TrEMBL record:
<keyword id="KW-0808">Transferase</keyword>
<feature type="region of interest" description="Disordered">
    <location>
        <begin position="372"/>
        <end position="391"/>
    </location>
</feature>
<protein>
    <submittedName>
        <fullName>Glycosyltransferase involved in cell wall biosynthesis</fullName>
    </submittedName>
</protein>
<dbReference type="GO" id="GO:0016757">
    <property type="term" value="F:glycosyltransferase activity"/>
</dbReference>
<feature type="domain" description="Glycosyltransferase subfamily 4-like N-terminal">
    <location>
        <begin position="21"/>
        <end position="167"/>
    </location>
</feature>
<dbReference type="GO" id="GO:0009103">
    <property type="term" value="P:lipopolysaccharide biosynthetic process"/>
</dbReference>
<dbReference type="InterPro" id="IPR001296">
    <property type="entry name" value="Glyco_trans_1"/>
</dbReference>
<dbReference type="InterPro" id="IPR028098">
    <property type="entry name" value="Glyco_trans_4-like_N"/>
</dbReference>
<keyword id="KW-0328">Glycosyltransferase</keyword>
<dbReference type="Pfam" id="PF13579">
    <property type="entry name" value="Glyco_trans_4_4"/>
</dbReference>
<dbReference type="Pfam" id="PF00534">
    <property type="entry name" value="Glycos_transf_1"/>
</dbReference>
<feature type="compositionally biased region" description="Basic residues">
    <location>
        <begin position="380"/>
        <end position="391"/>
    </location>
</feature>
<feature type="domain" description="Glycosyl transferase family 1">
    <location>
        <begin position="202"/>
        <end position="338"/>
    </location>
</feature>
Length: 391
């Protein structure tokens, strides 16, 4: 097997440093490790709207190419990716990894330029409540286009891989995320927020309907839990949903709405010292926030979907409704020994999610792309339609 360094481009996210979500976390962790192994890694980055000066042109060994984007939810990602692809075509690479199937309209350009490309399809984007009928239809079509036009597909959870196998009869590379080891995170920064170790429940999520922050806050506010609820998160383009979350808190002094916390040291201490972590994500694959919580050895109550059960297994507690959430929080508080036992089990489970192993997979994928040793595009891929058997 060839071991020479490769030129690898990573496209379709907000870029690095990671300040937003799961894709950005993945790009930072994967890209930095690939660069450390001697590869030339180029990451296409968006300039934050509120940032006047760009970050340095290199970050953790990765080259940063900063390009603008249209500041509209429906166009931000695609407009930035279009500029990124134009730059990439003029600055060749051995392999490109495109994050988010929504960027599929740009894949024909990469194919015409003979740039081998893998698409990280993310979760089931068309199920996100923030998209209307037209948006949902667009994402379903782009899902199909990604299958047709990519040299390889990346799934970050077995449930996502199963979905593409069932819907399109195609295989994918199962490349999850890693869980950081937060056992040495410490707790000295908690005093800044008037918190103590084991003395609060925690939510960290973008404020979007499919992350169920509203369900968590509603369920918590309706019960008589003794520990406060700390909510970390916000989101652009989500004013109405953010307002709903605040209304559900309804001035309850136990609910602490912190907004975004970008201080990674403080955030890690929040994860590692929470009594429970409440995870409402429902349509993505393996979620980095969930892995960070179990990497901190924190007992977790998660929205009941296969992606979350795949990670937490029997050590997790699960909810679907505000009533479920309230019951699970009270059960956790009433049974601290069981909660601690579950936390220990999850800390051991976190060791199954190793970033170095994940990067082994990405490195092999990049070599396969460069060598054209992938399935290639599937021009006749179609979603399978379920047959209705009538009585």
């Amino acid at each position: 097997m060839s071991t020479h360094p490769l030129r690898i481009a990573m496209i379709g996210t907000r870029g690095v440093p990671a300040r937003y979500g799961g894709f950005e976390t993945a790009v930072e962790e994967i890209g930095a490790r690939l660069a450390d192994r001697g590869h030339q890694v180029r990451v296409y980055c968006r300039r934050p709207a509120d940032q006047a000066v760009d970050d340095p042109p290199e970050y953790l060994g990765m080259e940063r190419v900063v390009l603008p984007a249209m500041r509209r939810r429906s166009l931000e990602t695609l407009s930035h990716t279009a500029l990124s692809v134009a730059h990439l075509v003029a600055h060749r690479t051995d392999a490109a990894i495109v994050f988010n199937a929504a960027n599929a309209p740009l894949l024909p350009v990469l194919r015409a330029a003979r740039v081998p490309v893998a698409t990280h399809v993310d979760g089931l984007e068309w199920r996100r409540a923030k998209w209307g009928r037209v948006g949902k239809r667009y994402y379903r079509e782009m899902e199909t286009a990604s299958v047709r036009l990519s040299d390889a597909l990346i799934a970050d959870a077995q449930g996502i891989a199963d979905y593409y196998a069932t819907q399109y009869d195609v295989g994918s590379r199962l490349l999850t995320y890693g869980a950081p080891d937060l056992s040495a995170a410490g707790s000295d920064r908690l005093a800044e927020l008037d918190l103590t170790p084991g003395g609060y429940h925690l939510v960290v999520a973008r404020f979007e309907p499919e992350n169920h922050v509203d369900v968590i806050v509603e369920g918590y506010a309706a019960n008589d839990a003794g520990l406060p609820l700390v909510v970390v998160g916000s989101a652009p383009y989500s004013e109405e949903y953010t307002r709903r979350v605040h209304e559900l808190a309804d001035g309850d002094p136990r609910v602490r709405l912190l907004g975004g916390v970008w201080d990674q040291e403080l955030l890690d201490q929040l994860y590692a010292n929470a009594f429970t972590y409440l995870h409402g994500h429902s349509v993505g694959g393996t979620n980095p926030s969930l892995l960070r919580a179990i990497g901190g050895g924190t007992s977790t109550i998660a929205y009941d979907v296969p992606f979350n059960r795949e990670v937490l297994q029997e050590a997790g507690r699960y909810f679907r409704t505000p009533v479920d959430l309230a019951e699970q929080v009270l059960t956790a508080e009433a049974n601290p020994q069981d909660t601690e036992t579950r936390a220990g089990t999850l800390a051991r489970r976190a060791k199954d999610y190793d970033w170095d192993v994940v990067v082994d997979g990405y490195e092999q994928l990049a070599r396969d792309l460069a060598a054209r040793n992938t399935p290639g595009p599937r021009p006749f891929a179609r979603r399978r339609r379920r047959r209705v058997v009538r009585p």
